[in-house]
Amino acid sequence: MQSSYWLAAIGIVILGLAYTHAVELQHQCLHHSAFRASRLHRAVGFPLGLPMLVSYSHYRVRHLQHHRFLGTPEDTEFFGFDTRKPLTLGVLAKGLFDVSRVVAVVRDAATCVTGAWQYDMGQIAPKSRKAIVSEYRWFAIVAAALIAACAFGGGPLVLRLWMLPLLVAMPLHFLVELPEHILCDTSSVDVLRNTRSITGGWLTTWYTNGNNLHIEHHAAMNVPINRLRERHGDTQEFASNVQRTYFEFAKIVAREVWKNRTATSH
What we know:
Elements: H1 2-30, H2 39-49, H3 56-69, H4 89-96, H5 99-114, H6 126-177, H7 191-194, E1 197-198, H8 202-207, H9 214-219, H10 232-238, E2 242-243, H11 246-265
Helix pairs in contact: 1-2, 1-6, 3-6, 5-6
């Protein structure tokens, strides 16, 4: 009996890892650099984000604005961690479990079902709005199906295959995204100063789908992920924020958290 619990726990972690990786694959679809046929990007990108409740079209609109406005007050990154706040344990803990994003998804789905949804980060094309509304309505349909499954005795499966893996995926995804701009010069529009790259190895590059080479990505966002490594030498020479490993980055974060804790205590 105890071994079955361990196997279930391992399966939940593996699913959480997979859900996080899927959002990184979705990120490449946002930039239309995954397939030669443009129409495939949404067809593949939407289901990739479904387990973590990430609307492909909503993410795409906000993320492309993030690329355009990085380093300015108009920056609209889809995942709402504010890299300009002092880094503390409390800020990190809130980011690890971003409940507010889940609440926002529920709100967006509800307003899309009623037809009242409006984009609140500027102007978007009617085609983009239609796509976003359609995707959140699909979220509502899936949620209704899961509720029905629970009502007919499928609750344990929903718990093990989605809800618990989602609780694993949320902090994992936060940790993947954290290095991108934190502790960089976010008041600058220079990508060599406001963004971070981590050299990493084949495993971290694969798992993050090249997200570790983030300076290279912001400098040439339409370049396919597998070509970013070719630009890393220039990044290492000219950029302000380049670490060799995620462990090296983690030490920088730990020092900053400790510094802010000490300053607060005095």
